[in-house]
Structure prediction request, 163 residues.
Amino acid sequence: MALSIAKRDKQREADKVHMQRVRLKQKSDNALSIAKNNAQIAVNAFIRTRDEGKPCISCGAMKPLTAGHHQSVGSYEEIRFNTKNINGQCWGCNGGQGNKYKDDTVDQKYDAGVVERFGQARLDWVKGPHHLKRYRVDDLNRIRRIFTRREKLYQRIRAKNGG
Ligand SMILES: [Zn+2]
Prediction:
């Protein structure tokens, strides 16, 4: 009897520790995903400012630009913050809501647009392979700070030059 109580207490203690670990992990996953989002928002804002006044990388139209990833965030996590992988792209070419309308021709046009603007070497680089990166919250916060600063700098330069 005493043995089974001890065993039960031990199990309870183990469950408690396990749940604490799970909660801690959830908390850190959350912090990581928030930091990742914030970093991406800052990088994307920088791209829009950098490419303002340029045509859409895919269709060449002069339209309001979104930050369009060349290789998708989902499949190329390792270059999701790399400015070589992101260009001003019109809303339509970037797929609109949920990338529902994004088709192969848009990707092909993106490739062609990159070759035209930057050359074949850039396209080859984008296609990879790339080293897999493990971002820590600190890295992501640093990315956010760097790009927020960089975007403000570009804005200032632009204002100085009269738009
Ligand atoms: Zn376009």
Observations:
- Residues 46-133 form one domain.
- Residues 56, 58-59, 61, 89-90, 92-93 surround zinc ion (CB under 6 Å).
